[in-house]
UniProtKB/TrEMBL annotation:
It comes from Perca flavescens (American yellow perch). Keywords: Cell membrane, G-protein coupled receptor, Glycoprotein, Membrane, Receptor, Signal, Transducer, Transmembrane, Transmembrane helix. The keyword Signal applies. This is Receptor ligand binding region domain-containing protein. Its main location: membrane. It comes from the Eukaryota. Residues 1-17 form the signal peptide. It is found in: Cell membrane. One of its GO terms (cellular component) is plasma membrane.
Length: 513
């Protein structure tokens, strides 16, 4: 059962948050320097002075992991860590600080570096926002809704613990727009907080179709397609190969539940029958994960459609690897089917699914600098340094450029065939929101625009897990899906597919006795 965002917000107005012990950047001195104060930051209240109102933020400021000042600041919220330290509260004393724990998610770290790369590239441009410097404040949400909500409140204010206003405690938002989050549920929570303040949010990886509802999420945009398109594409994929008897597993989250609901509806229209539909979440007891694994093992359906988030599918596959089970043909959603760290699960060889198109970002190559004169960073095998298949990373890159183009439209004017940008022009985030709806440009061969729902044109690659001659599993693009094409031309397979166990096409139909 999900916690109400409003309740979380009320709780977090009192909760003190702090960085994980691994602080990637930022310091206490940085906050004090920005604010110009050294007084205690945990107080709350308003005291009038002769000509202005002195306002204090409640709670302790959470530091960004990466930051840079600028004329206009873009916020970022990413799940750089995938866990949050939790404790049981008795509510007789102030709750402990919320802290990120566990190892760093190197893929999300790459997303943060892509955001920084794009902003630095824009700052060095003579065409887009010339003479204006963009800044950034990038936060780690720990893949946690409470932390994401706290960060959203902070991005709506500023790092300054005390500020002065004319006659009340309202002020312009700290950021012009926010990039993030990487998941649908935290993105929904962030949107609920910043939406009423007209702060635009552009997500690179939140795909829940529910967020296309502009009545609910008027300031939400995304560079990644809605799951409604993916659900339709997956149903057509299953139908294409004649699979009429399948199993289904999903994350017990906004992403999984909404995505699977859309898929099952589309599958029903295609005449596909479902033997089982199971849900789980990474924080559920292991007994729940074991039960889902046992259902998969005992089922008669050879094909399993998995609308599962990356952090959840890893746990399920680890559970399935403990006890050998009959071979299954896995059909994956974009959240996990292109993640190279999962290729170690060899029993999933032959998996197939739709992934975001692979792309190239000129200049975003591996860092070839040496650490101490002997290491060669090219030998590192890490999603952080792997720039061979920039899929979601390109969505981050496009999100930053979309926001920059919107800011450009708000502060720059065309004069005698030249662009004049005034960095002293004060604009509100709602102006960026208005301009963002109309952005339409091309970057590195990719078009960027949003429809009335804040969604881009849906295009996917059909990706297959194929075994190489050396025995390792690699990702091979075997087809494409383009939702903008006419019916009958959207889905194309243009390369041979390797199936589970390296066999011929899988048969998955219910036996009639």
């Amino acid at each position: 059962m999900e916690i109400s965002t409003i309740c979380i917000g009320l709780i977090l107005s009192l909760v003190l948050c702090d960085l994980n012990s691994v602080n990637l950047n930022g310091s206490e001195d940085y906050v004090k320097q920005r604010a110009g104060f050294t007084e205690d930051r945990t107080g709350a209240g308003v005291s009038t002075q002769t000509s202005s109102v002195k306002c204090k933020l409640q709670g302790t400021t959470r530091l960004p992991v990466f930051s840079m000042d600028g004329d206009y600041v873009i916020g970022g919220v990413l799940s750089i860590h995938y866990n949050m330290h939790t404790v049981k509260h008795d509510y007789t004393t102030m709750p402990e600080l919320l802290r990120c724990t566990g190892s760093i998610n190197t893929r999300e770290l790459r997303f943060s570096r892509a955001m920084i790369f794009a902003i630095e590239e824009i700052n060095n441009s003579t065409e887009l926002l010339p003479g204006i410097k963009l800044g950034y404040q990038i936060y780690d949400s720990c893949a946690s809704v409470p932390v994401a909500v706290h960060v959203a409140f902070q991005l709506s204010n500023s790092l300054d613990p005390v500020f002065y206003t004319g006659d009340n405690c309202s002020q312009s938002s700290m950021v012009m727009a926010v990039v993030g989050e990487s998941g649908s549920t935290p993105s929904i929570s962030i949107s609920r907080i910043i939406g009423p303040f007209n702060i635009p949010q552009v997500s690179h990886f939140a795909t829940c179709a529910c967020m296309s509802d502009k009545q609910q999420y008027p300031s939400f945009f995304r560079t990644i397609p809605s799951d409604q398109f993916q659900a339709d594409a997956l149903a057509k994929l299953v139908k294409h190969f004649g699979w009429t008897w399948i199993g289904a597993v999903r994350s017990d989250s906004d992403y999984g539940n909404n995505g699977m609901a859309s898929f099952l509806d589309a599958a029903h229209r295609e005449g596909i029958c479902v033997e089982y539909s199971e849900s789980f979440y990474r924080t559920h007891p292991r007994s729940r994960i074991q039960r889902v694994a046992d259902v998969i093992r005992r089922s008669t359906a050879m094909v399993v459609v998995a609308f599962v988030a990356l952090g959840d599918i890893r746990i399920l596959l680890e559970e399935l690897s403990l006890v050998p089970s009959p071979p299954r043909q896995w059909i994956g959603s974009e959240a996990w089917v292109t993640d190279t760290k999962l290729l170690r699960f060899s029993f999933c060889a032959g998996a197939i699914g739709f992934g975001i198109e692979r792309s190239v970002i000129p200049g975003a190559a591996e860092d070839e600098r040496l650490c101490d004169g002997t290491e060669d960073i090219k030998t590192l095998q890490s999603p952080y340094t792997d720039t061979s298949q920039l899929r979601i990373t390109n969505m981050v890159y496009k999100a930053v450029y979309a926001i920059a183009h919107a800011i450009h439209k708000a502060v720059c004017q065309e004069r005698n065939s030249t662009t004049h940008c005034d960095k002293f022009t004060r604009i509100e985030s709602k102006e960026v929101l208005t301009k963002l709806k109309k952005v339409n440009f091309s970057r590195n061969g990719y078009d960027v625009s949003f429809d009335a729902n804040g969604d881009p044109v849906a295009r996917y690659e059909l990706v297959n897990w194929q075994k190489s001659e050396s025995g390792s599993i690699t990702l091979v693009t075997v087809g494409h899906y383009d939702a903008s094409l006419p019916i009958g031309q959207k889905f194309k397979v243009n390369r041979n597919i390797t199936w589970v166990d390296g066999g011929t096409q899988v048969r998955s139909t219910k036996a009639i006795i």
